[in-house]
Amino acid sequence: MSGEPLSGEPLSGESLRSGPVxxxxxxxxxxxxxxxxxxxxxxxxxDYAILSMxxxxxxxxxxxxxxASVRGYGPGGAGGPDExxxxxxxxxxxxxxxxxxxxxxxxxxxxxxxxxxLVALYTLRICGE
Amino acid sequence: xxxxxxxQDIGALTSGxxxxxxxxxxxxxxxxxxxxxxxxxxxxxIDGRRMTAAGMKERMDAANVYTSIIFPLNDPNARDDYSxxxxxxxxxxxxxxxxxxxxxxxxxHKDYEAEFERCVQRGFKGLKLHPVSQEFExxxxxxARLFEMAAAVDLPVLVHAGFAMERIVEPLLPTVERxxxxxxxxGHAAMVELLAATRAFSDYPNVLFETSVVKAKDLYVxxxxxxxxxxxxxxxxxxxxxPSTLHATLLAADAAGLSEKELSGVLxxxxxxxxx
Lengths: 129, 276
What we know:
The structure holds two protein chains of two kinds. By secondary structure, chain A is mainly α. Chain A has one domain (32-70, 77-128): Four Helix Bundle (Hemerythrin (Met), subunit A) (Up-down Bundle). Chain A has helices spanning 32-55, 59-69, 83-101, 105-128. In chain A, helix 1 packs antiparallel against helix 2 and helix 1 packs antiparallel against helix 4. Chain A is elongated, with a radius of gyration of 14 Å. Chain B is α/β, with parallel strands linked by helices. Chain B has one domain (35-272): TIM Barrel. Chain B is 40% helix and 15% strand. Chain B is built from ten helices and ten strands. In chain B, helix 3 links the parallel strand 4 and strand 5 (100-105). The radius of gyration of chain B is 18 Å and the shape is globular. The N and C termini of chain B lie far apart (41 Å). Chain A binds chain B through residues 1, 5-9, 11, 16, 53-54, 56, 59, 88, 91-92, 94-95, 99-101, 103-107, 109-111, 113-114, 116-118, 120-121, 124-125, and chain B through 1-9, 12-13, 16-21, 23-25, 215-217, 220, 238, 241, 243-245, 247-248, 250-252, 254-255.
């Protein structure tokens, strides 16, 4: 896999949604395993959220968990290698929650699918680095 | 919220945070590729979802998709023979000439001979079977007979092989071995049995794997395990949508290192061989 963004235009680094929070403590250097583990966590919350949306069981709550899982710096910290995709995920999941709340299920589901797919393939890429 | 509601605005699928992924999708589609969606529905479903021919065409136009295979949903008005929902699909085909490839749907539990004959005579291009919705196993004798009837008239069959399926390869393999000429599309790429299916069916070139609403990580395994010439893109509208399913397919294909020629085949050429 290449080192380019998985999909989408390169980002400016500005957070589209709530980004890192005050008090974030980050290690200087994150191992590949730690980074992969962080994205495996995010992927599992996205999975929960998508299932919850289909089932109609507390979807806003579980989508909120997915949204929370992408807050803050990744294991590599502010200058780490994962910040661009985290910014992208905050945008997708945040908008998905808004569309869902507004009653547009297809627009919400499309964003959640793209977010989950990006996380999965990004995790594979980390494993191959 | 009502999960069955259609989006008020198709543009919402490609704007905001979807702008970047959608631009990437458009860049990745090889030049000259006329995207062919091998799995979409028109009609009404028992679960409340619906899609009109006009709505489907509008979505295709917005996403630059040229052709779609369409067939009925699990229609509450299907009664015994599915003739009503099949007529809706045929009407869509007639109204939008060239846009849709019409498949008909049957319930193997009911008398299906007359509707099978009627649809073949009318010019339908394929048959859709859904083991979960119609509650049958793929090795049921009535289903095996339908496969024989389809093979006899060279009619492709698309089988739901996705969500809620537990047995795919083992019940299907005897039919594929017995009828190697049968043209079979595994809807949703055999999902839970994806890897087993690539092994079981690799020597049967008339079995295609269709990608609709399959996660990119599953599709990555598919692209790494099966000849890309045996894979075709699908959306599963109204359960899926064109932008996010194209994104999943292209993301996985990109990660698996498919060439532009292979990618063009997945998006168009592989299924177009059957429906030129």
